[in-house]
């Protein structure tokens, strides 16, 4: 059976995948590539998540692509607007026609003899999987399972007679008007859902085991909207992007350096929003700022519905579900017609694809990230991921640009395989992510390590990564360039 071969295959047609395709089109115009998408539409997270109020908690000047200005008046955008932005970008750069929908990659095996990736792909409902090959593989699959979110094992869940929903699988057309709704969780999804649901529900309660830091941000960027009247759109976008990147980085650095000061500032801002109506302890976490992500609410919508009495916050632990709601360990029972489990994601690497090298399964937890893009001992593969302390697309853009530079460099030096190697064995492993969020701690055993030194260390610093990834040298002591087995072997990377 003939196997179609392409230069590059991109897995996933979400924000990262469409961005990677545009970078390839711009920077490697001679390469033949395709995007394989398991679902029936592009957009990734922004197409999958359809719960009420779905939005980004990051501004679109930094969540947007570095090559495609965000021109909408709203800086913090809702899900449908972000989905339209992705679709518009794909059309504008001519990559929408390169997406192959309902193509779910089952296996990806690196063949050293030919220096190619061999893919087994389930195409729609066809009985026989399709086989494809490529020289380079870009994993733009995100970091969580699309099939289901994380739901704890709640005692008595089967006893509940109302409707139980995980936001990741929100029922289309579900009518919650006039219902008593209980939202379990305190993260970004919960603080998004509560104000949206409160507009039509009889009562909304956010039940949290422990609080999160929440900050109010303006939904519209008044300065950028004013500058649009006198400056070209690209200038406005770049100015806003540079300003917001700097502010995000400064805020993160201050939180890490002076956590007690930043905590006082954050709690002071919440106190100003809530006044005396809501107990501030519901917004006073036990952990330091940026030990977990800080939740943003546009125009203080969460605080507004709390002040108005349309919603309330309860901080307590669940004992069990009952027929009509939830009983807390304190003995109190919270009545509900609908319970929403905004309890997080299930992390998953490679989109669940079985990755191997010459038939031997690749164990990511035993590997180490190289520049936050490639993995030790895994040839010709990029994992396009975002930041945890800033907008996802900032790092995704840099990662795609870097990999395009690497592809062009390999063409220039006449090598077909590139593999990160810990050649001297002196790099010490460290945890991949410096966050204490529940979904990360639950999946820590699935993640690769990072190293204690460059280029194995994650910086979580856009400005530093911009210098290193866009302008830094490609060849170093750890990146090994070679020919396929059977051809003359050679290592061209020099210190």
Describe this structure in words.
- This is NAD(P)/FAD-dependent oxidoreductase.
- Keywords: FAD, Flavoprotein, Monooxygenase, NADP, Oxidoreductase.
- One of its GO terms (molecular function) is monooxygenase activity.
- The chain has 495 residues and is an alpha/beta fold.
- 28% of the residues lie in helices and 22% in strands.
- The protein has 12 helices and 25 strands.
- The chain has helices spanning 15-27, 45-48, 60-63, 79-92, 188-198, 222-227, 233-257, 259-274, 301-307, 392-413, 438-442, 462-471, and strands at 4-11, 33-37, 99-101, 103-111, 116-123, 130-139, 163-165, 180-184, 203-208, 214-217, 295-298, 311-315, 318-322, 325-328, 333-335, 338-341, 354-357, 360-361, 369-370, 374-375, 381-383, 417-420, 429-430, 450-451, 479-482.
- The strands form 7 sheets. Strands 1, 2, 3, 4, 5, 6, 17, 18 and 21 form a 9-stranded mixed β-sheet that branches.
- Helix 1 (15-27) runs parallel beside helix 10 (392-413), helix 5 packs across helix 9 and helix 10 runs parallel beside helix 12 (462-471).
- The radius of gyration is 24 Å and the shape is globular.
- The protein starts with a strand and ends in a 13-residue tail after the last strand.
- The model is unreliable at 488-495 (pLDDT under 50).
């Amino acid at each position: 059976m003939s196997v179609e071969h392409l230069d590059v295959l991109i897995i996933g047609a979400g924000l990262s995948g469409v961005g990677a395709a545009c970078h390839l089109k711009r920077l490697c115009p001679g390469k033949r590539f395709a995007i394989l998408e398991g679902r029936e539409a592009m957009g990734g997270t922004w197409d999958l998540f359809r719960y009420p109020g779905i939005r980004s908690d990051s501004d679109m000047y930094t969540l947007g692509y570095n090559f495609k200005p965000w021109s909408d008046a709203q800086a913090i955008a809702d899900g449908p607007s972000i989905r339209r932005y992705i679709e518009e970008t794909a059309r504008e750069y001519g990559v929408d026609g390169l997406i192959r929908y309902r193509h779910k990659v089952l296996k990806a095996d690196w063949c050293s003899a030919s220096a190619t990736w061999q893919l087994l792909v389930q195409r729609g409902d066809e009985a026989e999987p399709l086989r494809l090959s490529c020289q380079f593989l870009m994993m733009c699959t995100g970091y969580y399972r699309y099939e289901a979110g994380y739901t704890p094992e709640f005692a008595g869940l089967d006893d509940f007679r109302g409707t139980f929903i995980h936001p990741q699988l929100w029922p289309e057309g579900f009518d919650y008007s006039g219902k008593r709704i209980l939202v379990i969780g305190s993260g970004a999804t919960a603080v998004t859902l509560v104000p949206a649901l409160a507009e039509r529900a009889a009562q909304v309660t956010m039940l949290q085991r422990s609080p999160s830091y929440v900050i109010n941000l303006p939904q519209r960027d008044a300065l950028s909207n004013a500058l649009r009247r006198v400056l070209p759109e690209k200038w406005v976008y770049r100015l806003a992007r540079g300003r917001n990147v700097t502010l995000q980085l400064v805020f993160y650095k201050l939180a890490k350096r002076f956590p007690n000061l930043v905590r006082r500032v954050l709690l002071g801002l919440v106190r100003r929003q809530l006044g005396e109506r809501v107990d501030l302890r519901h917004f006073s976490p036990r952990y330091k700022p940026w030990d977990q992500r800080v939740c943003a609410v546009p125009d203080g919508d969460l605080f507004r519905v709390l002040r108005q009495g349309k919603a309330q916050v309860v901080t307590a632990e669940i004992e069990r579900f009952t027929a009509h709601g939830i009983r807390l360990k304190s003995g109190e029972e919270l009545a509900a017609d609908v319970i929403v489990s905004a309890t997080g994601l299930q992390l998953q690497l490679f989109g669940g694809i079985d990755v191997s090298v010459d038939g031997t399964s690749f164990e990511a937890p035993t590997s180490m990230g190289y520049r936050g893009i490639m993995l030790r001992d895994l040839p010709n593969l990029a994992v396009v991921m975002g930041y945890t302390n800033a907008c996802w697309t900032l790092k995704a853009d840099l990662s795609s640009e870097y990999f395009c530079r690497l592809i062009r460099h390999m063409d220039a030096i006449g090598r077909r395989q590139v593999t990160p190697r810990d050649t001297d064995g002196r790099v010490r492993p460290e945890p991949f992510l410096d966050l204490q969020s529940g979904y990360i701690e639950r999946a820590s055993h699935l993640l690769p390590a990072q190293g204690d030194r460059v280029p194995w260390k994650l910086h979580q610093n856009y400005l530093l990564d911009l210098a290193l990834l866009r302008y830094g040298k490609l060849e170093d002591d750890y990146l090994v360039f070679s020919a396929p087995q059977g051809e003359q072997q050679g290592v061209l990377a020099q210190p």
